[in-house]
Amino acid sequence: MPFLGQDWRSPGWSWVKTEDGWKRFEFFNHDLEDNNTELELKELQDENKENLFTGEDCEVAAKKRKKDHFNNNAKSQFYYQEKWIYVQKESTRERHGYCTLGEAFNRLDFSSAIQDIRRFNYVVKLLQLIAKSQLTSLSGAAQKNYFNVLEKIVRKVLEDQQNPRLIKDLLQDLGSTLCILIREVGKSVLVGNINIWICRLETILNWQQQLNNFQIPKQVSNGVTLDDLPLHMQNNILYKFSDGWDIVNLGQVTSTLHMLSEDWHLWKKLCQYHFAEKQFCRHLMLSEKGHVDWKLMYFTLQKYYPKKEQYGDTLQFCRHCSILFWKDSGHPCTANDPDNCFMPVSPQHFIDLFKF
Q1: Is 176 within 8 Å of 204 (Cβ atoms)?
Q2: What is the pLDDT of residues 202-249, one digit of tens each?
Q3: I need a labelling partner for 184 at 20 to 30 A (CA). Which of 126, 277, 340, 341 fits?
Q4: Nearest 5 degrees, angle CA 94-CA 95-CA 96?
């Protein structure tokens, strides 16, 4: 099949078999094309009245405006009927080629996944890992999609006033990577013009400034507040957190929560959840009285060892079909017992699937 993509690393066009033969699958809906046509005709009529363009100049200008308008309105992810992708690492007699990280990123609809609170942290962690090591491996279309998803995440955080710390860490890592790539241009492969990457870096700095100036307004409520709950219920809430910084931030709300957040039993359980006992012995932290300082040990251990990841929902990988998919959307599995073939995919495992 001929290659018809604009980017030399893009997957090319998708084709659908119909009764009349093979037809190219349109990624974008027809409404956008109709809007582009109406815009072009309207602009041409206005400009013909003003006699700004004539003949071939008018036709060239109209094509350019249509292209610019299409690019500005094409910020949403490419639309695919299937929300799954076959992970192929080598050519076989039945299939030729392989699946890339950028192609998987475009196909799995991360733009809609960030709207699901169960998947939000999962997608943010995945984008952070891509920013650290895999940004240059994305195709031009995948990079554009990456920054479009990132823009939606930043907008969602500012509107919902939730998870600002996660996005600050993501933008910090992404900004550091872009600084290195721009400074060492020529030594590494960058898809696109250098001015595009400089513009993206400026956008990231602007987002960071917005998040640094972001303040959650104090909510005035006449109903039951967190401080009105019984002491044991507030303590149970703290024990549900799996991140130490969330416990520290919650402890700053009231004096009662601060007292509960300093309980060494809480930090000991958190250390036991994330780390092994052998790691405790290597980095034993003692207080002035000679007791184990579990809170200090937790923040020390996370500098040396990865924490246990916990997500509400993750991508699934079918070992029988070698297909990556979201569980609620499913995939065409041919196994007799599909549930036993599924395995959850962590963000790091997702990256490793495409390291050939």
Answers
A1: no
A2: 999 999 999 988 887 777 777 778 888 889 999 999 999 888 988 998
A3: 126
A4: 130
Q: Give 66-107 pLDDT, tens digit per residue.
A: 444 444 444 444 445 678 888 876 666 655 556 788 888 888
Q: Three-state SS for 124?
A: helix
Reduced DSSP (H G I as helix, E B as strand, rest coil) percent helix, strand, coil of the chain, to 5: 55, 10, 40
Burial annotation 212-238 (CB, 10 A radius, 16+ → b, else e): eeeeeeeeeeeeeeeeeeeeeebbeeb
Report the SS3 class of residue 325: strand
What are the distances in angstroms from CA 211 to CA 23, 157, 175, 208, 243? 46, 9, 14, 5, 21
Contacts of 222 (CB under 8 A, 6+ apart): none
Hey, what amino acid is at 236?
N
Write out the H or E segment, with its range, that includes residue 342. Answer: strand 342-345
Q: Do residues 245 and 193 make contact, with C-beta atoms less than 8 angstroms apart?
A: no
Q: What is the dihedral of CA 98, 102, 108, 111, to 10 degrees?
A: -170
Alpha-carbon dihedral of residues 45, 47, 53, 57, nearest 10 degrees?
-60
Q: pTM of the entire structure?
A: 0.69
Q: Which amino acid is at 237?
A: I
For the chain, give the percent of residues with pLDDT over 70. Answer: 75
- In this structure, which amino acid lies at residue 29? N
With contact defined as beta carbons under 8 Å apart, do 266 and 239 qualify?
Answer: yes
Q: For the chain, how big is the Rg over CA atoms in Å? A: 26
What is the Cα–Cα distance from 279 to 176, expressed in whole angstroms?
Answer: 30
The one-letter amino acid code at 197 reads W
Find the distance separating the first CA and the last CA of the chain, reported in whole Å. Answer: 24
